[in-house]
Amino acid sequence: MTTNPLTQEVSSGRPPASRRRSSPHKRAIAVFVLPFGVLFSLFYAIPVGYAVWQSLLKVEREGTFGVAREVFGGFSQYEQVFSNAPFWNSVGRVLTFGAVQVPVMLGLALIFALLLDSPLVKGKKFFRLAFFVPYAVPGVVAAIMWGFLYSPNLSPFKAVTENVAFLSADLVLWAIANVVTWVYVGYNMLIIYSSLLAIPTEIYEAARLDGAGQLRIAWSVKIPLVMPAILLTTVFSIIGTLQLLAEPQVFRSFSSAVTSSYTPNLTIYSTSSIPNFSLAAAFSVVLAVATFILSFTFLKVTQRKGNK
Questions:
Q1: Which domains are delineated in the chain?
Q2: DSSP track, the chain
Q3: One digit per residue, pLDDT tens: the chain, 308 residues?
Q4: Where would a tag sit more exposed on the chain, N or C end, judged by fewer CB atoms within 10 A?
């Protein structure tokens, strides 16, 4: 009578050979994940945790000129955040900014990506580089350059800037929007263009056999297939909009309409410069939660529409 080796291993309490062989894979996975885990903990999880802890502290002094010391203050900093009208005005301002700027930017990125993917366009390498070059310019440098172009006293286009007050309170937000659009159109275009390159050519051939032209293929085939890339760039843009800092910070040198609380991140930066790190941390936590909720809600809404 012969016995099954697997039965012997089970009866003896030892794990089967297949299970024993899987253990080296677990070690390999741990080795590959460890560098990411260490970096994620050091530069994301720990700073976020520290910011949350810092937001729960407050500064107390003994007398007017006493030594300042940090004590646990509970949610007192968050009470100041939710009662701070300039901060919420800045949130509303960047939401208005994003409602106009993000669709324009992504619309241009989609058009440029479709043009680069079209067989009718020549010189694709040149135009791909030309569209992407503004993204290679640091945001601060781009803001300084556009600030000089907008300034009536410094701009080489005085005929325009003397008649259109780009740096006035009514237009400075959209002047900043132009800078952001100029910088990030090429970045978003590359994401969408990469998605277009991944579409099998057989789909285009089938559409041509059905009599579809280039416009019809772009509208009915390409855009639906790259919709995940468009949604991804939209989420990135929503997050970037709420984190707007470099451009308005530079524009404070050109326009008095840009105040220290013009955007949420500018409010946080100004608060930390007082310095009031606990209140700045509370602002940061609230802004991070608001960004997460807005991005998550957008993804859920788009997923439900896609499933219908």
A1: 5-55 (no CATH), 76-307 (1.10.3720.10)
A2: ----HHHHHHHTTPPPHHHHHHHHHHHHHHHHHHHHHHHHIIIIIHHHHHHHHHHTEEEEESSSSPPEEEEE-TTHHHHHHHT-HHHHHHHHHHHHHHHHHHHHHHHHHHHHHHHHH-TT---HHHHHHHHHHHHHS-HHHHHHHHHHHH-TTT-S-HHHHTTS-TTSTTTHHHHHHHHHHHHHHHHHHHHHHHHHHTS-HHHHHHHHHTT--HHHHIIIIIHHHTHHHHHHHHHHHHHHHHT--HHHHHHTTT-TTS-TTSSHHHHHHHHHTTT-HHHHHHHHHHHHHHHHHHHHHHHHHHHHHHH-
A3: 455 554 555 455 555 554 555 555 788 888 889 999 999 999 989 999 999 999 999 888 776 666 777 788 889 999 999 999 999 999 999 999 999 999 999 999 999 999 999 888 888 889 888 999 999 998 899 999 999 999 988 888 988 998 999 999 999 999 999 999 999 999 999 999 999 999 998 999 899 898 888 899 999 999 999 999 999 999 999 999 999 999 999 999 999 999 999 999 999 999 998 888 999 999 999 999 999 999 999 988 888 876 66
A4: N
Total count of residues recorded for the chain: 308
Read off the tokens for 8.
């012997």
The pTM (predicted TM-score) of the whole model is: 0.83
Cα-based distances in Å from 68 to 76, 149, 283 = 17, 46, 21
The answer to whether residues 270 and 261 touch, using CB atoms and an 8 Å cutoff, is yes
Strand partners, 59: 70
